[in-house]
């Protein structure tokens, strides 16, 4: 890769490009957008609370709609609302005017986003939207705009200027729109007591979702996959069972499958260090009698945390009567994507 010196200059589009100038431009943009967010934070008041209250009290969905960059923002707002417990989707105004209005019912809330509040495609469908009987919420920089005048609730999203040097390309204004959407979604989630289990229900496919919903019973090995031995078995027998079942420990039970202990690699090592003969020593003499255990209904992440904290590699799974049901190993948890 060719090294570029910090102050190197090159011809670019009829001008001269300098690394330092680009860095300064980036900092200027971030500062301008950060200032816009801080200004909005200071001005946030009753109207914002009214929007949150209205959505919380609705039995319908939130439909976000906008054009251009604001349309992209609407898709993000709808996605964030949906993933945090508020049913939502986005509709493009043009598609709405050609049939997609049929997806909107009188129980829904329409969240219309437009910096100017005068976007033709959006303004043209507002009368039809209002005729459905929905509650119309507007996010716009102009409280005197057509959108604001038709809305039931209007939240002003005004910025001093765009980050674009020409003050034309939507930059600071769309950042503010996104942040307002996030603020609405999180305020609603907070009010509903949205927790990890709620999040997991709408995110079952990702690693985070798996960690939040996967229980020990979903990942534990059972039946013939368990290296189970009785107390009178030899240490050599336990070693063979561990090797044959590909698990780093043999689980010791009585005839009723009551858990008595566990023989792990460390127990075998200590046995050999003491000069004991694996063929003549019984597992009852060397086993760990109070192993860490797990219940099948606990989250697999709890076992993962236990394994990481203690350094053990196998956790027996028992019922309320301490009968053996299965076992979970480090590899089982890694395969399930929770470790």
TrEMBL record:
Give site residues, Catalytically relevant: 69, 121, 162, 203
**Residue limits of the SIS domain?**
51-194
Q: Does the keyword Zinc apply?
A: yes
Q: List the CDD domains hit by this protein, alphabetically.
A: CBS_pair_SIS_assoc (cd04604), SIS_Kpsf (cd05014)
Extract the Gene3D superfamilies matched here.
CBS-domain, Glucose-6-phosphate isomerase like protein, domain 1
Where the record annotates domain CBS, the positions are 220-279, 287-339
Instruction: Report the PANTHER family cross-referenced here.
Output: ARABINOSE 5-PHOSPHATE ISOMERASE KDSD, PTHR42745
Spell out the protein name for this chain. Arabinose-5-phosphate isomerase
Organism annotation:
Pandoraea terrae
